[in-house]
Design brief:
The complex is a heterodimer.
Chain A (H helix, E strand, L loop, with lengths): L4 E11 L3 H12 L4 E4 L17 E2 L2 E2 L3 H11 L10 H18 L11 E4 L5 E4 L7 H9 L3 E6 L7 H8 L6 E6 L11 H7 L3 H11 L8 E5 L7 H12 L2 E5 L6 H17 L1 E4 L4 E7 L2 E7 L4 E11 L9 E3 L4 E3 L53 E3 L9 H4 L2 H19 L2
Parallel strand pairs in A: 1-2, 1-14, 2-11, 7-8, 7-9, 9-10, 14-17
Antiparallel strand pairs in A: 3-4, 5-6, 12-13, 13-14, 15-16
Helix pairs in contact in A: 1-11, 3-11, 7-8
Chain B lengths: L3 E10 L3 H12 L4 E4 L15 E2 L10 H17 L4 E2 L3 E6 L4 H14 L4 E3 L1 H7 L7 E7 L2 E3 L1 H16 L2 E3 L2 E9 L2 E9 L5 E11 L5 H7 L7 E11 L7 E4 L8 E5 L2 E5 L3 E3 L9 H14 L8 E12 L15 E4 L9 E6 L5 H16 L25 H9 L6 E3 L4 E2 H10 L9 H6 L13 H11 L7 H17 L7 H15 L2 H12 L1
Parallel strand pairs in B: 1-2, 1-12, 2-9, 5-14, 12-20
Antiparallel strand pairs in B: 3-8, 4-8, 5-7, 6-7, 10-11, 11-12, 13-16, 13-17, 13-18, 14-15, 15-16, 19-20, 21-22
Helix pairs in contact in B: 1-5, 1-8, 2-3, 12-13
The chains are: A alpha/beta, B alpha+beta.
Chain lengths: 424, 531
Amino acid sequence: MKRGTRKIETQLAVIGTGIAGFAASIFARQRGLDVAQFGHSGAMAYTTGYLDLLGVHDRRVRQDPWAALDELRQDEPLHPMSGLSNTSIRAAFDGFTDALGEMGIGYTKAGDRNLSGLLPNGLAKPTFSVPDTMLPGITALESGARTLVVDFEGLQGFSAKAFEVNFRDRWPALRSARLTFPGMENRQVFPEVLARSLETSVTQQALAELIRPLLNGVEYVGLPAILGMHMPDEVRARMEEIIGVRLFEIPTIPPAVPGIRLRETFERSFPEMGVKLEPQLKVAEVDFRSSGATLHLHGPMEDLEVEASAVLLATGRFLSGGLKSDQESLSETLLDLPISQPQDRDEWFRQEYLDPRGHPINRLGVEVDGRFQPVAADGAPIHERLFAAGAILAHQDWVRQRCGAGLAIATAHAATEAAAAALG
Amino acid sequence: MSVRTYEADVLVIGGGATGSGVMRDLALRGINCILIDRKDLNAGASGGNHGLLHSGGRYATADAETAAECRHEGDILKRLAPECIDDCGGLFVAVVGDDEAFAAKFPEHCRVAGIPCEALSAAEAREREPALPEAILAAYAVPDATIDPFRIVLENVGHAERLNDSSYLPHMEIEGFEIIDGTVAKALCRDRRSGAAVEIRARQFVNASGAWAEKVARLAGCSDVSLLYSKGTLLISNTRVTNGVVNRLRLPDDGDILVPGGTVSLLGTSSVTVDDPDGIAPTVPEVDRILAEGAAMLPVLNETRFVRAFSGVRPLLKSAGSEADGRKANRGFALFDHEDQGLSNFATVAGGKFTTFRLMAEKAGDLVAARLGNAEPCKTNLEPLPSGDALRWTEPGAAARDWYKRADPTDMVLCECEMVARSAVDTILADAPGAEDHMSLKAIALRSRIGKGACQGAFCSMRVTSHLYDRGVYDSPDGLRQMRDFVNERYKGIRPVLWGAQMPQTELAEILHCGLAGMDLAAAEEGADSK
């Protein structure tokens, strides 16, 4: 049987299904553009749920991300965020978290300071905006409140004991306990399964009953991030009511609920917003012409051809498939955009894994101009209607700098603004 | 503070194949030993080789004596330690560009050394190894096999511990000897983890410290041990490329042996003379050269995913002409009784090959037993090596088989690449050599396949660390430091093979280790504290 080809038209085609891609679709819709988004990466499941802005600069943890951004502009003028003002970055962050709130996942509002996000091994990281389900844990750490952290038999990679032992010095009133999750006896359990199970009031009640006898005067109870998949704030509120203390979530090893939650929320909400989202389709090829591009995608049942007036590339790095390498060099996967890079593979990585300077390869990527258009060696845009955002961009090290969400959101915001301008 | 002291009939220095072999050899004669290593088992060449149990074919042309020794010892190990060995067979193959005259003499050289050697047609060779190229000039089958170097050393130590309370102390470094009237009274050691001084009294001392044997001998005032350090680098693939061992039929050079190891293959080996056996790591140029050479014999290697490289230092005995090229050095071994150095109870056994470790241990054992007045003969050539339950996790694929067989739904898999379950880690914690001591992630990884699969420790380092906190093995932030040391160490081998499919893995590892575990910030903080 011959495969059919479905044809659609859109003003902006967003390629990539990470934070940058989703943020770009949201911003483009806010600007009134007709948007379609494509991607095939599961990399959202690797996020902690925290949205960083800029947590580390010049190898030091920063309390004030805005002051750190000012320094970044001085020290790293080529960093993708350096060309953006604090005002526009704040507007982008607010636009993104407000949209998330409307979709049902509460995030803290952009503030003036970084927060100390709790990590599962009992350390903290500088982050900027956190899910409402995680905020009480940060408050509890700051106040040293009497707190119980619970883990579950059969849940690998999350140890309440490790959390307690490693926080002990700065949080003496912290205790840990292990429970068997209701209905999940004698088996290995996975955060995603527990989260879906906790959507039902029966499980919420049963887990609350198990936790209550352990309270012994604590003000807070911390759990791995499993408080429901779709309405975490409601699940938390209901369980807090039953248990009678504040509850909070702690990130877990991926695949983790906070990222899956975001992805499923976008997938659920985007059709209502008018974004044509195909989250499981890989763009195979793009043909550019002066007024836009044709995207070719191969679905399981039929092929898809997309006529787009502009394209925004947010395909990420190696993990998401935006970049690849062979034994000699790096390349951009979809359009073979130029990547400026050293001659020798020996210069990609430093000798020490945790070298505080980070690995040079992390700063290699797609070069863009001030309008976030990929450029050739001579500085001219490669296509008039091509834009790029997020981790694929050169001159940043988002993991080490703790700026992943800030980079994704701020550059998506600026790139969609430029795309909207180009589309008139 | 009082100094911790231990006492045994014999102190064996060096936890590699030879040292563990001496320990078992002596225990079988009823002699009680303490084995020490300044790191842990197989930290030197014993853990830094390809696991090839030589038929002798590789040495048949240049060194008939070593070749014959390999064949003889290989037969003994195949018979007595079959659990540690994959008798997969091997081929010697000459491809276009290789010296045909050299290849033609190979069967005669094998005959002289007593090595069975069967000429194969190109079609027969490809039937055995479909990965071989079309154009083959010559191919011969020999009885090469592979040995799990970790398993056999663990089994040696485990057996000795069960035989007569001989014991193993890891992280114990020799700093000197107390010598009275030509007799070594005790070894002066330092526990490298606690920093505590430790003294070990013994009647006899055996230096089996491999590439460090010259240094240890000097600590006892002996200047008769002279070694050449030859660095060898190998690559590990993600899957098993060939059924058996494939050797390039030419004089040994880089990238001309591919050795299967359970579910993976190892490609090597380079040979570069170095000044110091410490601080070596594989480099990008070495990896590229080995791969280019290997692909000339097996083009499939150009498409193969490599997950890691590693380097070992061969301790070779110095001889005329060996200075410039380690490959020309004698691969034989020597036993030094040090009597001409004025010592009556100190011996060094040095040089040799992994394949001949048992014979080296036998010779050292004979000397020590005679000095102790023990008339028991060596038994390691007759007595099968029993297998311990806690010691079977180093073989690629073993943990997965066990997990599927037991099908216990409560048994969490901590390492998904290699399917190492919580129960396997718990048996290691309970019973593996060194378990009496504080076990770290690194020690468990040495005794299992943890961290050796495609993810190279990205996930399992965190899961096993969590488990060790749950078990109370870790009860302070030191557990996080141990995790950091572990991933730092693994990275040294990962770095030179980073391209292609390993790039996403490494990006993910960094997201986990820095983003989720904060290792870079913790390391920077501690670095700042210590300044």
